[in-house]
Amino acid sequence: MTVASAIKARTPVPVRRALRRVERRVRPVTTAVTAPVRRHVLRTVIRDLTAQRPRIPTARQARRLAWGWDNPRAAANVDYVRAVAWLAGRSDGPILECGSGLTTVVLAVYASQPVVSLESDPGWHRRIRTLLDDIGLAADGLHLAPVEQHDGFEWYRVPSGLPERFALVVCDGPPGLGREGGRVGLLPVMHDRLTPGCLVLVDAHMQQAETFALTTWQDEYGLEPARRFGTALALRVPG
Known about the structure:
By secondary structure, this protein is α/β, with parallel strands linked by helices. The protein has ten helices and nine strands.
């Protein structure tokens, strides 16, 4: 048991509830105060990364990116952020990103090939596009792609005019779990557009929460683990 969990266990329930109420009231103020600082940090790190390419972000730079992004999950995904940068700079063909976020920024900095990013949430799509414009990065490849019903599962509605083939997939969406949603639809929908040897990068969350998708990809489409980047995993399309 950690010190924090031990303290929590000894704190009376009414006190914990009161603290949560205070936290909910304070959070908007804290966010408003720290937002400009976070944006400045994000801009600074991106400027430094752009100047030092093709080197990948250091662990410290990746953590600062995540802090500037203000996303707790991204902060826990330093390995994933660094893997995206490394693979994007070495991809020999177009790159598909499923789900937008901090990795969209990293791809905009490091990718040497065209990038297509699919985002299902309109509000999040606007936020990412505004942010990319604000920090001076290209947003042309970011597409609003609602999730729709396919053959027994839900996945993105694929926009027209995309590249014929992709050599790298950064797979962090769409949201959902199990047989009918989530990331499982990538291979059934896009398999014919993935080049032989295409790498599909997944994070630690997917490896733990979406085992059905990974099992389906491996059993039905022959994907095999190709390389680990700490907690991130790259799978290779056979061929």
